[in-house]
Design a protein that fits this description.
Helix content: 40-55%
Order of helices and strands: HHHEHEEHEHEEEHEEHHHHEHHEHHH
Strand content: 5-15%
Distance between the termini: 19 Å
Structural class: alpha/beta
Largest sheet: 5 strands, parallel
């Protein structure tokens, strides 16, 4: 343990590495005088597997049982959208061990050289900068998170000077651009702070492992597809809908190649014509669709379609595409050919890997993100690709589907 709170997926990664090391070490002490000891090796794998599952279970519940004993009391400097996003992460991820007590409002504060203008919409207490020492003492704050990426060096140094000796840990969210990602590294270049960055590239080995994971993962998906299709068919017939169950549409795949993508039809017949009529008669609908490429309360959705969308099950026929190799379990959103021009420079990132059934935008916002934000998330995925990122997103997808659309305590 490195003295810091790790999220569940990161702790799982360390546990898997440690138990993998145990497995390799155990191979060194087995008796090979009569060939490979398969019987002994089987028992070793069994016991290590049981230990791993027990560790993951204990790891999770220990964070829940002892959360109040080991949590950090946190104060967030800032009260704008970035601070809100940071607070939501702290609140919904128990493994962060961070209990946010309130926010510091820096708007038009004479202490700072820069006038910060943040929209304040917080449910927790919001205090002034002049009271920060008193709040740290009263609330027993031991961690301060600075959530104002635009804060300059001078203001940052002045703030550090006031709180550095009052708390154990100070962290801040920096201002970054598209060239900085989790593949970037901070280097000491003979006394100079230098950041090296790189575009995510999938090696041949990773590409092979990803395809194997897709093929294996598509099989149970295809099995679930059978009863799910029966449900959709029966529901549609009960509501007098006799049109095809599946919706087939051309989408942009890897390297810009078009492919036929399968989905459950969740809208009434002639949905495109109805959309055009709605956009012509309702300016709000036209504006919403132009920005998000979708409608929040779409009147064209069928009864079965509403259930499928709420549970993220309308994408299940895409397991056919995954099985065929057109798509992956995890990847960017499969965009329409007509959206190519709207994608701009990010288009090259999007087509750098196969589109996926799930991905960054499904697990980090779903319907609440705009078209531009979805592009940014898909670009992030390409530039930070790893098999572990795929596994993490798959776990978050399962959690999202099981949460019934509600905000639950995180894993």
């Amino acid at each position: 343990y490195e003295g810091q709170a790790l999220l569940y997926t990161n702790e799982m990664y360390l546990l898997l590495k440690s138990f993998g090391g145990m497995l390799i070490t155990s191979l060194l002490v087995l008796n090979y005088s009569r060939g490979f000891p398969w019987n002994q090796f089987g028992w070793v794998c069994l016991f290590i597997g049981i230990d791993l599952l027990a560790s993951l279970y204990i790891n999770r519940w220990a964070h829940i049982w002892f959360w109040n004993k080991v949590k950090h009391n946190v104060l967030i400097v800032g009260a704008g959208p970035t601070a809100t996003q940071l607070y939501n992460v702290c609140k919904t991820n128990r493994f962060s061990l961070m209990d946010v007590k309130g926010f510091i409002n820096c708007n038009d504060d004479p202490f700072f050289l820069h006038n910060y203008q943040q929209v304040i919409s917080q449910k927790l207490p919001v205090w002034k900068v002049k009271d920060i020492e008193r709040i740290i003492e009263q609330q027993q704050i031991d961690v301060v998170l600075i959530a104002i990426p635009e804060m300059g060096r001078t203001d940052m140094n002045r703030l550090y000077g006031r709180i550095a000796n009052l708390v154990d840990n100070i962290q801040f969210l920096p201002r970054v651009d598209g060239q900085i990602n989790f593949a970037s590294k901070i280097n000491d270049f003979d006394g100079l702070l230098m950041i090296s960055t790189s575009t995510g590239k999938i090696s041949p080995l990773e590409r092979g492992l990803k395809r194997a994971m897709d093929f294996i993962g598509s099989i149970p998906g295809l099995l679930v597809l059978i009863p799910l299709t029966a449900y959709v068919a029966v529901t549609n017939r009960k509501n007098g809908d006799k049109d095809p169950i599946f919706f087939v549409q051309e989408r942009i795949g890897k390297d810009g190649k078009l492919f036929r993508m399968y989905k459950y039809r969740t809208m009434v017949p002639n949905a495109e014509q109805i959309l055009q009529e709605l956009m012509e008669t309702d300016e709000d609908i036209r504006r919403e669709y132009k920005i998000n490429k979708k409608l929040r309360n779409d009147p064209r959705i069928t009864k079965a379609g509403k259930f499928l969308r709420e549970k993220s099950l309308d994408e299940f026929p895409q397991f056919i595409n995954v099985f065929k190799g057109d798509m992956s379990l995890v990847g960017p959103r499969p965009y329409l050919p007509g959206e190519k021009e709207d994608m701009g420079e990010i288009y090259e990132d999007v087509i750098g890997t196969k589109p996926g059934i799930t991905g960054m935008w499904q697990t980090h916002g779903r319907s609440d993100v705009t078209f531009e934000e979805r592009l940014d998330l898909d670009s992030f995925y390409f530039r930070n690709y790893s098999l572990w990122l795929d596994i993490t997103l798959l776990l978050r997808t399962v959690k999202t589907m099981l949460s019934k659309g509600e905000k639950t305590q995180a894993y």
